Amino acid sequence: MSNQYDLALEQPVSIWNKELALPIRELFKNLAKATVAGMFGDSKGILDNVVEASSIVGFEKKPEQAAWVLVFKSLQVTLYELVPDYQDLFECQLDDTEVETLSDNMAKQVNDVPLGIIADFFDHPENLSLFTHIKPAIIYWLESLGMRTQDAEGFFARLKQSFALALHKQWHNNREDYLCVAEHLQSPFADANKELRGWHLYNVWLQEQVNQRMFAEAFSLSQVYVNLNAYYKVAMQEDDEKESLRSRAFNTKKQVVDLHGEINNWARQFDKNCAIKVISGGPGSGKSSFAKMFAANMVRERPDIRVVFIPLHHFDPSDDLLNALARYVESDPYLPTNPLNKAQKTQRVLLIFDGLDELAMQGKLAAETANYFVEEVISKINRFNDAGFQWQALITGREMAVQSVAAKLRGLQQLLYVLPYFVEQDDDTDDSEYIDPDKLLATDLRDTWWQNYGRAKGVDYERLPEPLAISQLQPITQEPLLNYLVALSFERGEVVFDEHLTLNQIYQDLLEAVYHRQWEHGGYKQTRDLEKPHFIRVLEEIALAVWHGNGRVASISKIQQQCESSRVTKYLEVFQESATSGISRLLTAFYFRQSELLDGQDKTFEFTHKSFGEYLIARRIIREVAAITSEVNRNIEDPDVGCDQSSALVRWAKLSGPTALDEYIFRFLKDEVSIRHINDVQQWQRCFAGLFSRTLRKGMPVEELQLSTFSEMQKYARNAEVALLAIHHACGCATENVSDLNLENMHSFSQWLLRVKGSGEEDDRIPTRCLTHIDLQQCDFEFKDLRMANLQNSNLNEVSFVGGELGHARLQGVSAIESTWIGISMSFANASYANFASAEFDHATMFCCILKSACFEGATFHRTDLSSSNLTEANLTYADLTNADLIDSNLTNANLTNADLTNADLTEAMLNNTKLSGAKLKGTNLKGVDLSNVDLSKVDLSEAILE
């Protein structure tokens, strides 16, 4: 290259490389050899050494040489980082001669590629013209090593953004070596100080995050992502107080917005009165994907705003926000400085806190931690904004965590709820729960996603495939993560997609697919002997280690301890290295990623998606249920083998004591039990009913665990006991059998329930949601708060709920003959098909209850509020409804033969095909009631109020 060089002039790479002779051939040869051998190792130490060895001294004074070194080293680092990440997609076996030939061919092709460097080189290195020309060569090389064409396209799409990150790392760390290039291009980067270079590097890193592989795919999130919709809750005014109460489930509307447009406008147009927004969504609803995509777009479009993305499972919320953020910055390899800098008053800052539900604080409950954190964020940001700063915060979290802090978000439209891809609308009514002036809900985003997915996979999908477009699958296909998992299973063709499909079956198929790809077909050449049951077992132990930790992250040493404790380290010996190395390889091969943070000096790994870990935890718990049942049954047959109830409970406490079951694992548990063989489930239910009964009588034997403190013993006992009940509930739902717990007295169960509720999370309703299929006959629940409890199909004969709370409870199918419910508050409860014969409901509040086909024969309802309740097909023969409030109730097909309705108020009630034969109607208010289709035989209407 002559002294009169022009960096912008495109010339073949061979010209750029003529004086330096950087090892192009060796670059592709080393990578090809490692790919064929399938051995990249746990670290990239060997590969890093190759990069360092290729450095050339003395180039930094010549812009053309420095530019080529910067490009080559950045490309080299990028390939050494990306190729191992795609190892499972290389399926071709080349011998040494073929590798040599391929490397010669690649060197020739790359040397012929033209390269020119223009003024925006440092701003957008991903737009380097080299990539346009080198793409055919890279695709050819990848295909020669056995990668599918479409996967190679995905690899190359990521290569460009990863190259930008690698280049900015080189520039940031070795600025003096390449300063002559920046000066020659008259780039503002030449004058940028270290802090500004650091922030630019962080911005590039943020953009690269959405280009990483999506699960085991070659494509990335950015290639398939679909913009989401969300809604604000808008209060609607009701003139009539009782009407407002009656429609309280509908007295708010949902204002639909484009989530991206809404948050984008909020971030760009700073308003100190609305500096904090919270996004709520269920697991797999797309809230974290949105946060990442939004962060990447913001740093690209508004680099003047310092955007910081913070996964909250890596954040310590126990300190002042500024100090906590400073510690986070210190542990982050890319963040240059604390963005909340008091000395930079004019600097715009946007903090994105992802995963409110994943916060962990020593000695504090999850809801308490979330409250403390949100309070601190609100306090600090408002205080500094009042002083003239311009700081904003966006927080995402699952519904349960957000619900606990909702009261703190008093500002207008601070809380957004993510909507699924598809929301079914009733076109025949104006009374929709949604306010959607822009008709956003008219678009089925599932079709858009499948079009993107098809392009990324090289398949022509115009919309959601027909076999998946059935209404029974809508709850799964409308959720972003689940829709993707359905796509994986759909393409495998092993799962029957019908109304009986559960998420557990989809995850099971996912496990099968990964094992099939990784182990049976040579994704890891040295691990073909890892059998599928052992593969799954090890993953379950890893999930257990994570669960016993903080719910997302576990260190290699903790995982190894768990594997040793469960005696499964032998399954890792097929990796032909240490158990620690084996675990590391298994994790990087599956749906885990190495965390940026360390546990001491130990590497940590995290689930790429939390719900996958929750599924594996549920599987591991059910494995323990089966093992304990087997051992207890063996001991019953022969006391010299197996384990007795006490030993079984100790084993159970070790598994379920460290961490409380949450709503999400609980759901997976129920679904996992539902797909197991009914004979096994019946045995589990009998065994765990016996274990729970023993616990009620003698307590959980946590003293055998040698825990250090009494509070720790209490925690283990509470968590293990609730988990026992949860397993019994899941089994009962599958078998529909009712268990006799041999209770000592009428108070023992309610006293236990009061204890476990009092020591758990304030909003933890799992204990009260698991009261199904239990014989609770004659138990005393007087003045107990069991709101939202689930007592379905339990025996409640002769129980007493005097003065209790059962609002929104589920009582379908219970037998509650001669039970006492005087003064109970159970509005909005569902007791369809229940038997309340001869029960007492005097002075009860049963507003808006669902009592369809329930039996109330001979029951009493003196001064009871049954207004707006659904009593369709209910049996109220000989019931005493004196002075009862039945306004707006639905008594269609109900049987009130010989019922006493003296002074009852049935204003506007629906009596269609209702039997009132022999009923007493003295003083009964029947205004607005159509009696034309009512059996009034033997009825005296003379003293009834008809008008």
Percent helix range: 40-55%
Strand content: 5-15%
Number of domains: 6
List unreliable stretches of 5+ residues. Answer: 1-5, 41-49, 244-250, 521-528, 575-579
Structural class: alpha/beta
Q: Please give the order of strands in the largest beta sheet.
A: 6-7-8-5-9-3-4-10
Largest sheet: 8 strands, mixed
Separation, N- and C-terminal Cα atoms: 105 Å
Number of helices: 30
The whole-angstrom Rg is: 33 Å
Average predicted confidence as pLDDT: 86
- Number of extended strands: 15
Q: What's the shape?
A: elongated
Keywords: Repeat
How would you describe what is shown here?
It is a single chain. Helices cover 43% and strands 7% of the residues. It is of the alpha/beta class and 947 residues long. The longest helix is centred in the middle third of the chain and has 28 residues, at 610-637. The chain is elongated, with a radius of gyration of 33 Å. It folds into six domains: 11-212, no CATH class; 263-421, 3-Layer(aba) Sandwich (Rossmann fold); 458-501, no CATH class; 506-608, Orthogonal Bundle (Arc Repressor Mutant, subunit A), CATH 1.10.10; 619-736, no CATH class; 776-947, Pectate Lyase C-like. An eight-stranded mixed beta sheet has the order 6-7-8-5-9-3-4-10, sandwiched between helices. The protein has 30 helices and 15 strands. Helix 25 crosses helix 27 (678-698) and helix 25 packs across helix 28. Residues 1-5, 41-49, 244-250, 521-528 and 575-579 have low confidence and may be disordered. Residues 22-221 form the NACHT N-terminal Helical domain. Residues 278-365 form the NACHT domain. Keywords: Repeat.
